[in-house]
Design brief:
Length: about 325
């Protein structure tokens, strides 16, 4: 059975079609191009949720490659619009800590805001001030000791990148990542309803939420965009002359720093099966990205439903069964596959 036929069959067999009415998949199992793009109408945008974080990490690493950031510098040396409170004699939180969730910072996830609701500024979010709906981002431990997933750290990173470059985060993302990576549909703007997959919660269509915490959760894109993102990392790891990152920084991105987290990505497996991955979980959306570190293999699955995780697993199984990617994981393990 062909890959597209296998994907169609797996989706048709989902247990609750009403709960998960839409999904989309992109697969790279060859050297050059996306081998298959399947599912929702071409160009349909989904919320990438927490997969916004590795995009923000790549932005920071590109600035590091340009000499505009040092990964091991205190974040307060770069922040001009806001400062992270600390205590005398405590080790600083660095840019690297933010990227691998090692800064001992508060605020794990963000719920987003209803459409039409007043949105807080970044500094209001960082200080937990109205109309922000999350607590203040603060230190509550020693950085570098453990991995503790922190959307708050990526909110801080968003402010830091804007302060360093004096550019709005969406414009910076377009120039540093979207355009050179050929992520042609990716955007941090709110799309027209006709261009976006509907969100579903508990089997009902709902209005999607808005996430001003762009680096943590605000990306809209297609699975093809995410596969192109994965290919950028693979090219850099391979030392391609046209890569967006120098090889040493790409290797840091896919090398565990604490636990199994690299810079912006989870890293698992070993030898030729080593892979990077990230999941996404926003109001009414679930998604996943998996890429091989040393091979040109990647898959992204996006769904417009809070019940999408089992369907993602079934679609990944279809990819594994219909391609040469026999060590592709198909069961969720913690934050991703």
């Amino acid at each position: 059975m062909s890959l597209t036929a296998s994907l169609s069959a797996a989706f048709a067999a989902r247990p609750d079609p009403v709960a998960v009415p839409a999904a989309s998949v992109a697969v790279l199992v060859a050297e050059d191009e996306v081998t298959a793009a399947w599912g929702a109408e071409k160009g349909t945008l989904f919320q990438a949720a927490s997969m916004s974080k590795p995009v923000a990490a790549l932005m920071a690493l590109r600035l590091a490659a340009q000499g505009r950031l040092c990964l091991d510098m205190d974040v307060n040396e770069y922040l001009t619009s806001w400062q992270l409170a600390g205590e005398n004699g405590m080790p600083p939180v660095t840019v690297r800590h933010l990227l691998y969730h090692g800064g001992a910072l508060t605020v794990s996830g963000v719920p987003g805001y209803e459409q039409g609701q007043a949105l807080p500024s970044l500094t209001e979010i960082l200080d937990g001030l109205a109309p922000a709906n999350t607590p203040a981002v603060r230190r509550d431990g020693l950085p570098g000791r453990e991995h503790r997933y922190s959307g708050g750290g990526y909110i801080l990173l968003q402010q830091l990148l804007e302060d360093v470059t004096a550019r709005p985060f969406p414009d910076l993302a377009a120039g540093l990542v979207f355009e050179p990576a050929r992520m042609t549909a990716a955007t941090y703007a709110q799309p027209a309803s006709s261009a976006a997959a509907a969100a579903h919660v508990d089997g009902r269509e709902v209005d999607w939420h808005v996430y001003p915490e762009l680096a943590a959760a605000g990306l809209w894109c297609t699975p093809t965009d995410l596969v192109h993102f994965a290919r950028v990392i693979q090219d850099a790891v391979a030392g391609e002359a046209t890569a967006l990152l120098p090889r040493h920084l790409a290797l840091e991105m896919v090398t565990p720093q604490v636990g199994d987290w690299g810079l912006g990505l989870r890293v698992s497996g070993g030898g030729p099966g080593r892979r990077f991955s990230h999941g996404g979980d926003n109001h009414g959306f679930r998604c996943a990205l998996i890429g091989a570190v040393c091979r040109r293999q990647a898959v992204a699955v996006m769904t417009g439903s809070d019940a999408g995780d089992p369907v993602i697993g079934s679609l990944l199984a279809a990819v594994r069964e219909s391609t040469t990617w026999r060590d592709l994981p198909i069961r969720q393990d913690g934050p991703t596959w």
